[in-house]
Each structure stands twice: as structure tokens, then as C-alpha cells.
Design goal:
alpha+beta, four-stranded mixed sheet, globular
Length: 243
């Protein structure tokens, strides 16, 4: 039906189905176009108006995706991620370790979590979603909420990642985190900054806010104000880990 109005709608359908990109506005335009087309004789003016808005939104989305792909391709690669991991690890060892547990400022907590974020995103393959709300279950504690992702300490300085159970089947996926250095990094970070979530807010009581996660990553690599959304971060690290 809509193919008689919007030329190339098969390509548009594929674009709308693109992974990780919000399409609510474009979907609304498409829904309006479909409804108006049924009453084309009565609403010809509105039909033309929303067709124009729909095409404009599609063009904007294409430009956003092109920009995002260029940024991901040229600005951040495996070598750059590894370089930043080493730089942050060195800074943390020199500046934060001597301070001891519970003595970090909010800025220092942010530095600690930036380093951990890079290590976790690089190690968990494939990433299915961002790691904003992964709970910490310490040694001796019981994992009570199986509907959220968790990192469980199974013995001293050794952690297992538990994906949230699927509501329909109750199926659960778990795997040990490797390498050993990552386990030590998680344990050290929890010692310096005790908290309930692996990546958390400044108090440690809640998961890291989505906007804070985007800023934390973006400030590591981009000095021009570029900010990738969370789904873009997931795709970036999955593409790098597969390289």
C-alpha cells in the first residue's frame, strides 16, 4: 500500500529496522501516512505534508548513521582502546591505590569506572546491551534478583557474569570473566569504591545513569564533543572484539 506513495520503501523498511537506533518519530510518520492513504481523497494535503516530513526524517537518519559509522571507523580502534586502558590503569595505580578504601572523590571514582568500563566492554563478547545496571554479588552473598545482569564473586578475586534470565523460558547464561587481570581489576575497584553496581553513580547505590555512561566513554576518546549513544558503544566494542 505505502509503496505507491513512498518510492524505495523496501530500503526504508530496512533502514527503520536498523539495530540500536530509535525510530519512534519516523514510525509515527509512517503510521500517519498509512492511515491518510486510506482516505486519500479527503486528506490529500495532509498526505503530502507527512510524506515530506517522512522523507526528511529518513534523510536525517541516514546522515546520523553515516556520521556514526565514520566516527566508529576512524576514531576508535582496538589499538586505541588498548592504549587508553594502559594509560588509565597506570594513573589509577599511581594516584588512587595509595588513598585506600572509601577515600576517593567523585572525580576519582569516575576515573576508576572509566578504566573498568573499557576493560569490561572489551572482555565480554558479545555484548548484548550496555553495562549500566549490572549488579555486584560479593562472596558469601546470594543472588536474589535473577532478572537483571549480575557479576557474582565465586571465590576471592574471581567473578562470573550472569545474564538476566529470560522471562519466557527461565533460561540463564553465565560465564567466567577472563583474563585474570580483569578479575583483579574488578576486585580492586570494589575495594577502593565499595558499591552495589559494577558501573554505578557516585554513591554506589544505583547503576550508572545512561547519560553519564555516554559521557564517560566519549570523554576518553573524543575531544570535539562527539557523543555516541549506548547502543553505538555496544556495536563499537563488538566490532572491535571481532576484528
Amino acid at each position: 500500500m505505502i509503496t505507491t506513495i513512498v518510492k524505495g520503501s523496501m530500503d526504508i523498511t530496512k533502514l527503520l529496522a536498523g539495530e540500536g537506533r530509535s525510530t519512534s518519530t519516523i514510525t509515527q510518520y509512517l503510521s500517519l501516512l498509512q492511515r491518510l492513504h486510506k482516505r486519500r481523497g479527503q486528506h490529500e494535503g495532509l498526505l503530502q505534508r507527512y510524506h515530506a516530513l517522512f522523507v526528511e526524517a529518513i534523510h536525517d537518519l541516514a546522515e546520523e548513521r553515516k556520521t556514526e559509522q565514520e566516527v566508529m571507523k576512524t576514531a576508535v580502534g582496538k589499538a586505541e582502546i588498548e592504549r587508553m586502558k594502559k594509560c588509565l590503569a597506570k594513573e589509577i595505580k599511581e594516584k588512587l591505590y595509595p588513598k585506600g578504601a572509601g577515600n576517593l572523590s567523585d572525580l576519582e571514582k569516575g576515573l576508576l569506572l572509566q578504566s573498568l568500563m573499557l576493560s569490561l566492554y572489551s572482555a565480554i563478547k558479545p555484548l548484548h546491551s550496555d553495562l549500566c545496571h549490572v549488579k555486584v554479588v560479593r562472596l558469601g552473598e546470594t543472588r536474589t534478583d535473577r532478572l537483571v545482569d549480575s557479576i557474582v564473586e565465586t571465590c576471592i578475586n574471581k567473578f562470573t557474569f550472569h545474564r538476566a534470565c529470560k522471562k519466557q523460558t527461565g533460561e540463564e547464561t553465565r560465564f567466567e570473566l577472563v583474563p585474570r587481570a580483569l578479575n583483579n581489576q574488578i576486585a580492586d575497584s570494589l575495594r577502593l569504591f565499595p558499591r552495589k553496581y559494577v558501573l554505578s553513580n557516585s554513591t554506589g547505590d544505583e547503576g550508572m545513569p545512561s547519560k553519564a555512561l555516554k559521557r564517560a566513554f566519549s570523554t576518553i576518546f573524543f575531544k570535539d564533543g562527539t557523543v555516541l549513544d549506548n547502543s553505538s558503544l555496544v556495536r563499537l566494542f563488538n566490532s572491535v572484539s571481532g576484528a
